[in-house]
Write a structure and sequence with these properties.
The chain is mainly alpha-helical. It has helices at residues 7-43, 49-59, 69-76, 81-106, 110-133, 137-162.
Length: 170
């Protein structure tokens, strides 16, 4: 730690890696889950969706006419192979973005903080648009978490300019 840092700056610098670690793990978890979704979409590519859904409703012992399940099935059944391909490509692309952010943050790379701020902030308008279409607690939580991540990392990045050279991690 540089002797020129104040006690307040020093404590903020010491606390910050935990926040970076948390954000990095969060991004990695989302990336891994999206890879699983993408693989699942590819596995469904050459199968009859109705047969697969019927099989899974039997395994999970779920009533297909349930008021929560029925609307979900109505959206899934008409999905075409082209739509599944597009879904998997988009999912893998977004997963790659999240995995890059997560790995960079866990490796404490300064570029990863900039990358995460830019990519996360760029997607907030899309999330707000989705929230405007239909409000759900999950959508609200995603927006709140992403705004907190952007504000936290932006404050860290702004703080780097105020510190003497060599006092930040790389």
């Amino acid at each position: 730690m540089s002797p020129t840092l104040t006690t307040r700056e020093r404590s903020a610098t010491e606390r910050s890696p935990a926040g970076i670690l948390l954000i990095g793990l969060f991004k990695l978890l989302k990336g891994v889950l999206l890879v699983a979704v993408g693989i699942g979409a590819l596995k469904l590519l050459h199968k009859n969706m109705a047969d697969v859904i019927t099989q899974w409703t039997g395994i999970l012992r779920v009533d297909p006419e349930n008021r929560f399940i029925h609307p979900l099935l109505a959206k899934i059944l008409p999905v075409t192979p082209k739509q599944l391909k597009e879904l998997s490509v988009g999912t893998f692309f977004y997963a790659a973005l999240l995995l890059t952010e997560g790995i960079g943050l866990l490796m404490r790379k300064h570029w990863a903080e900039y990358f995460t701020v830019i990519s996360t902030a760029a997607l907030i308008p899309l999330e707000i648009h989705e929230l405007a279409r239909r409000v759900t607690p999950a959508k609200i939580a995603v927006i709140v978490i992403n705004v907190i991540i952007v504000l936290y990392l932006a404050a860290r990045l702004r703080g780097y300019r105020r510190r003497p050279q060599g006092s930040r991690y790389r």
